[in-house]
Specification:
The protein has 275 residues and is α/β, with parallel strands linked by helices. The protein has nine helices and twelve strands. Among the domains are: 91 residues, Alpha-Beta Complex (Spore Coat Polysaccharide Biosynthesis Protein SpsA, Chain A); 71 residues. It has an eight-stranded mixed sheet with strand order 3-2-1-4-10-6-11-9, with helices on both faces. Strands 5-12-7-8 form a four-stranded mixed sheet. Helix 7 packs antiparallel against helix 8. The radius of gyration is 18 Å and the shape is globular.
Length: 275
């Protein structure tokens, strides 16, 4: 029943110890964490210097500097030994019961996620949950997933795990979620917020020029759905995914316009204002 947790690490010294402490607090102790260096740093030595050691930690490297989260996650696959696989960004956290809550659902349905909570990295203030207020497990189909404005981080049964798609870096979690829902039909999402997603105003999504990069990314993905491999999706889901990405691109354009009037506006704040 081991869970393999993939942690890409790039310039992660300041936050990785916090992320790992959230794993050490898990009420479900049967896990392994694979820390994948994408900056040519030796994170085993770094953690040893902090007296952080656990036999459940293993280490790998892309051999590059900033080759991308998708590449780092794919590198980790040869080290995965668990029956279930999930991810944890090096600057995020799990709540203590995350694995225990998601495992039964993932076992039954092939995967499960939670109502991810976004918080401000600097102030610790709650920004929003991905799906708003929920009272019970919701089974999310692709049509409804495409209306969300933040990713989900599922726990996936091994038989449904796929490598991340080459050439997809921006919104790569969205593409991975789309492919997963295409395979399992609907993704169960718990009302609890057991993944803590920290929003840093200096992150890729908030840096100057990000809007142009996402514009290019969305356009490439739409083209791929129109004329390319369609990410391997079923025909009907290609149509749904395309329509959803067109709307996301339009929202990104609207955000880019809003930032010209308020340069300090984050995407999360923008989305919340539109609700």
């Amino acid at each position: 029943m081991t869970v393999s947790i993939i942690i890409p690490a790039c310039d992660a010294e300041a936050t990785l110890p916090r992320a790992l402490k959230s794993l050490f607090r898990q009420t479900e102790p049967d896990w392994q964490a694979i820390i994948v260096s994408d900056d040519q740093r030796d994170y085993a030595a770094f953690l040893s210097g902090l007296v952080i050691s656990d036999p459940r930690l293993s280490f790998a490297s892309t051999g590059h500097y900033r080759s991308g989260c998708h590449h780092a996650r794919n590198v980790s696959f040869e080290f995965v030994s668990g029956d279930y696989v999930t991810q944890l960004d090096a600057d995020d956290e799990f709540t203590p019961t995350r694995l225990a809550e998601l495992l039964p659902l993932a076992q039954r349905y092939g995967a499960a996620a939670d109502n991810l909570l976004m918080i401000d990295e600097l102030t610790e203030a709650k920004i929003a949950t991905v799906m708003g207020e929920m009272k019970e497990v919701r089974h999310l189909d692709l049509q409804n997933f495409m209306t969300l404005n933040a990713p989900l981080v599922p726990l996936i049964r091994r038989d449904h795990v796929l490598p991340r798609v080459k050439g997809v870096e921006f919104s790569e979690d969205v593409i991975a979620n789309i492919q997963l829902i295409d395979r399992i039909g609907a993704l169960p999402v718990t009302p609890s917020s057991s993944y803590i997603y920290r929003i840093n105003t200096q992150s890729m999504a908030n840096k100057e020029g990000a809007a142009e990069k996402f514009e290019r990314g969305y356009s490439e993905y739409i083209e791929r759905l129109d004329k390319g491999d369609g990410f391997g999706l079923k025909t009907e889901n290609r149509v749904i995914a395309r329509e959803g990405l067109v709307k996301k691109r339009a929202l990104n354009r609207e955000y880019a316009e809003a930032v010209t009037k308020n340069p300090k506006l984050t995407f999360s704040e923008f989305v919340e204002e539109k609700r």
